[in-house]
Write a structure and sequence with these properties.
By secondary structure, the protein is an alpha/beta fold. The protein contains ten helices and 13 strands. Keywords: Hydrolase, Pyridine nucleotide biosynthesis, Pyridoxal phosphate.
């Protein structure tokens, strides 16, 4: 039976996370199902940004000694509990793309170049493969692709140095068994770097408990750090003194303010810093991470799954009759999004929804993604978003001519 509005409201009345919605500044009339692409703005972020702006004006260069310089490791420690990591294991810096480059080079160096193949997955977010290709081009290493749906075990051998995998796939939302796969890769003598872009802030993550040594992620999606907010990098405590990372800049030097002629890596996670970062970009993220410290991740996961299922339950009958394919994995194997395919009109349907204030996103070819962010979405929001979806598809509103032309960012 299709869920009623009253049943959605009832779920809201019993929602232990309901109080968080008021702590986000969402525009009036918007139903935001794209927090898996850019998270909404925490109200505290605005104040934090204003404070740093004024600190720049009033304190000038002294600001670097007032929390700007050590922000990468301070925010890393704030973020660590959400990832199942300990203090000194996470640094907030650069972005996923650069952090992958740093970790790949670090692993190659730590293995004394005994292995020469970097394996990445076909069909994953392309930057993860592009950066492997770039590193291989400049070092003579070899790039190997694990085809989508292929069996990882078939692609591992004694030449593989490192594997880059996403814990949750950006298109399908499929969740991998991080502990089992990490064990498999390490049995073969290789390392795996986990990309947490679609799992950090979307569900409980247990890096230490899963035997993970290396991971990267971003903070502008589920973690609500703001557009272009810095990414993060995790290295297990026992694996932090094995070599150099290739972006060997002065902020990762053992004594950055000695201005020595030769590079010497800083101890611990600090060697994964590069050069000067934007203090302004760290301010809203720090406010957001403080809010995250209050969140019960078990309750978050339960609500995330319930929101996704509510959306599907409201629309299942429509999918069948309108040629829409629901490729979302079963509940136990999914992240925090619902992925629907309409080959011909996926783009136009998403545009028609955006025109109604229901924001999801489109990924070619044909894929409509809807992200579920339990801190600022209510069950009623999701019910209403599904109602709009049904109306757009049933009336073919998406065929309006203005909806068919594409913007640069989709
Ligand atoms: C969003 C995303 C990225 C983005 O990388 P940036 O360097 O932060 O732009 C990388 N990998 C995956 C899997 C993503 O979903």
């Amino acid at each position: 039976m299709t869920p009623t509005l009253e049943s959605a409201r009832k779920l809201d009345r019993h929602d232990p996370l309901a109080g968080f919605k008021a702590r986000f500044a969402l525009p009036e009339g918007v139903l935001y199902l794209d927090g898996n692409s850019l998270g909404a703005q925490p109200r505290d972020a605005r104040e934090a940004l204003a404070l740093t702006r004024d600190q720049w004006r009033d304190e000038l260069v002294k600001g670097w000694n007032q929390g700007w310089f050590d922000a990468p490791e301070r925010l890393g420690d704030l973020l660590a509990p959400l990832l199942g990591a300990g203090p000194g294991e996470v640094v907030v810096s650069d972005n996923i793309t650069l952090n992958l480059f740093k970790l790949l080079g670090y692993i190659i160096d730590s293995q004394k170049r005994a292995r020469s193949v970097i394996l990445s997955e076909g069909g994953n977010f392309p930057s993860d493969s592009y950066i492997a290709q770039g590193l291989c081009r400049f070092t003579g290493l070899e790039h190997r692709v694990l085809p989508e749906g292929g069996d990882l075990a078939d692609y591992l051998d004694e030449r593989v140095a490192a594997v880059v995998l996403s814990q949750v796939h950006y298109r399908t939302g499929r969740l991998r068994d991080m502990a089992a796969i990490t064990a498999l890769v390490r049995e073969q003598g290789a390392e795996v770097i986990w990309d947490l872009a679609h799992s950090a802030g979307a569900m409980p993550v247990d890096l230490n408990g899963s035997g993970v040594r290396y991971a990267v992620g971003c903070t502008y999606k589920y973690l609500n750090g703001g557009p272009g907010a810095p990414g993060f990098l995790y290295v297990h405590k026992d694996s932090q003194a094995r070599g150099w990372q290739p972006l060997s800049g002065w902020h990762g030097h053992a004594a950055p303010f000695d201005f020595e002629g030769d590079y010497a890596p800083a101890p611990g996670i600090l060697r994964f810093r590069t050069g000067t970062h934007s203090a302004l970009a760290y301010a809203p993220l720090e406010a957001s991470l403080r809010l995250w410290r209050e969140v019960d991740m078990t309750a978050l996961r339960a609500k995330s799954l319930a929101l996704g299922e509510l959306f599907q339950d409201c629309l299942t009958d429509l999918f069948e009759s309108k040629g829409i394919e629901d490729i979302t994995p079963p509940v136990a194997e999914r992240g925090s999004q619902v992925a629907l395919i309409h080959r011909e009109h996926g783009y136009a349907i998403v545009q028609a929804l955006i025109a109604r204030g229901v924001i999801g996103d489109y990924r070619a070819p044909g894929l409509m993604r809807f992200g579920f962010t339990p801190l600022y979405l209510s069950y009623e929001d999701v019910w209403q978003a599904a109602r709009h979806f049904r109306e757009v598809v049933e009336t073919r509103e998406y065929l309006g001519p203005a909806l068919l032309t594409r913007s640069a960012v989709t």
